[in-house]
Design a protein that fits this description.
The protein has 849 residues and is of the alpha/beta class. The chain has 20 helices and 29 strands. The strands form seven sheets. An eight-stranded parallel β-barrel has the order 7-10-11-12-13-14-15-16. The protein has a six-stranded mixed sheet with strand order 2-1-3-5-4-6. The longest helix is centred in the last third of the chain and has 33 residues, at 664-696. The two termini are 42 Å apart. The chain binds 4-O-methyl-beta-D-glucopyranuronic acid. 4-O-methyl-beta-D-glucopyranuronic acid binds next to loops.
Amino acid sequence: MKISHFSPGLFVLLLTISTFAVSSRAETGYDAWLRYEKIDDASIQRDYDKSLPAVVVTLGRTEVAQSAQNELIRGVRGMLGRTLRIETALPDENAVLLGTFDEIKKAVPTFNAPADLKEDGFYLKTVSVAGHRVLIITAPNEHGVLYGTFTLLRKMSLQEPISMLDEMENPYAPVRIINQWDNPNGTIERGYAGRSIFWEDGHVVKDLKRARDYARLLASLGINGCSINNVNADPHAIDSEHVAELARVAEAFRPWGVKLFVCINFGSPKSIGGLDTFDPLDPRVIDFWNKKVDAIYAAIPDFGGFIMKADSEGELGPSAYGRTHADAANVVGRPLKAHSGIVFYRGFVYNHHADWRNLKLDRARAAYDNFHQLDGKFDDNVIIQIKNGPIDFQVREPASPLFGGLEKTAMAIELQITQEYLGQQRHLCFEVPMWKETLDFDLHARGANTPVKALVAGKVFGQPTGGIAGVANVGLDTNWLGHPLAMANLYGFGRLAWNPDLSSEQIAREWTKLTFGHDPQVVRTISDMQLDSWRTYENYTGPLGVGGLTDIIEVHYGPGIKSSEGNGWGQWHRGDTHGIGMDRTVATGTGYTAQYHPPVSDRYESLKTCPDELVLFFHHLPYDYVLHSGKTLIQHVYDSHYEGVEQVQKFVEQWESLKGKVDEQRYNETLALLEYQVGHAMEWRDAVCQWFFKMSGIPDQYHRVNNDPNRIEAESMKLDGYEIFDVKPWETASGGKAIRIVSADGHGSASFNYTGKPGWFDLAVQYYDQTNGVSQYKLFVAGQKVDQWLADDLLPSRNVPSLPNGHTSTRHTVHGIALRPNDEIRIDTIADGGEKAPIDYVEIEPASH
Ligand code: GCW
């Protein structure tokens, strides 16, 4: 027996080591997709040992060239456990050779660079030189060499063959930039993963390690620019004191070929320049911007340029002087041009004091109405940065018609990686399939075959520049974005910025392998979860293109269905007792559909052709309207919300099937988040369904809505130290009411007697976990304490007004409780600070495990 060669002790030891390697190594997520995990497949390891030379020669002397070399050494050491030997000239053996075309040509005169490589593109080619195999990583510029190196390492991490390489890649578009909405005080607008990695206390942080590591992550995807301050810009970010600090960030980015960009405040000439005006046509203002730009370039010679939000949501802009957006963009763009800098001027301009009673007004029209008429007036280093949809990063929007409305102006599409309206990295929501729909959407801007991706890359109307911008908002959380699965969005953004033709499936699978390894079950399960997650989120939040039904006033997280109505923000859905949806038709509505080219305009204008998924974006419809699917609108709302919750419950099961196959730390973190998501999805479902039921008066054909036989409302329990109160908005509590402690000593108790059959059950307590206190909860069954917990979560994300509502509603489930008729179920609580241990209801379900 072969086994007899092993001593039993050794066998046990080997087993322990191998299980240890798979399951219990804690991983924080800091390394993201650049883990360079040791390749454990022996045949692949052998193959790489053979095909990868032992020597690396880097011909360039720049910092970027050095980064490429160091990265190659780091990656190979991680994956193969070997340290490449550095030589300065081609050795008398096989080698990896890194250099630009010019450099390679000198070292290998027979080498022919492919003619069709563009800036930042690269070429991986195995050649034979003096009988030795040389793996060349080359490009027209050093950035391309770095991107080629990362690509080779990604191939190895994906365990793809590398023995005879002959591959060339060009980026789809020149602009591939990240925006961070960080404030100098260290907070991040719409950031859900901790404080800024760049700023603290009004200054750039001293230790820029995180900034350097971030630049490396970005470079690994081919991203070449990053802005580091909020578009709602503090003017001081570019005063003389801060320019010196910005230079340090540029220095941290430089080795990774990432250019620094800064957001500017259009009022700067006045607020920091000492002028009494910021009129873009005033010679003193022109002089201010010229000098400011020169001063920045004196400190940062490779500075990328500015990003500008003007005349939007209270930010100052050219309208103060009756000037145009073109005047504003050009006055800052001209001095930049002398240094090859660019200005991104945001298309996100709309009136947030609009009259909601006027049914002809429409925020969706704003970007096109503002910018279409200025086409041709912008200088060629001005890029109009346009959000993917016409409103504001909602869960489902059509592509912005402005992409098809500018023929003589450079554009970039702005995507939001940070999940502002998509669950704020508490919910799993992989955005790539959503972005793909927009990028691939044919706007028919010049006949057929003019997808958004081609328009923004300048390919349709021959613009020299353009591309893609992503609002990432990574923070100090160790894993960058908070949720262990959320980095798939940053990865996916970068991959699409480089190549928008990649499929969502490919991106999901790549990311999963790089992040969690190659176990086929792990790869399949996590990719499936990611790929289903956006539609799942849409299902339990906002249906049929109506928008998110999210509370739009403050935190943009939980439900708050009427918050969009009756105010000037313009995210109206016009839901009332008759029907819901914005009439954006030419025939009877706001005329928005006319901003699209035919046949797109016709498709949206007519109910016959308008797709269900966007029907409420374009049409106001009665609740009993029958969709193309054959369902009534109202039944679709009910069904999709119940399905959505079931899908999240399935995510939990899918994830649990990976126990032992994913390291414990990320396994546990993700499981906790998914379980939380189930409870919050239920809150969403119930809020939306209750609201639609009340408005429409039409019952759910399957009798689920407002009919929860297993639910005991807190307001119906026996209360001690508690009072009943109306939750606002009403739909965010079951039945509109909940209870909160009012006793002087802060203690409360709520109880009821179980009346059902004996058996095993799960008990779920739906309560509100605010940020302004840590209440204590103890659950007793027939006098026996079965669980206790603290309401110590910071929902949704640390910095919200803390009230019992759709943002803070959360669920605690105790599994496997034996109940007998007449058992008393009691919750004893202690309030803390402003959090009065609020409870919405208890639900008793047959035990799931
Ligand atoms: O979606 C909205 C956000 C604002 C943001 C604005 C914008 C930076 O709620 O927080 O401000 O968009 O994109 O300018």
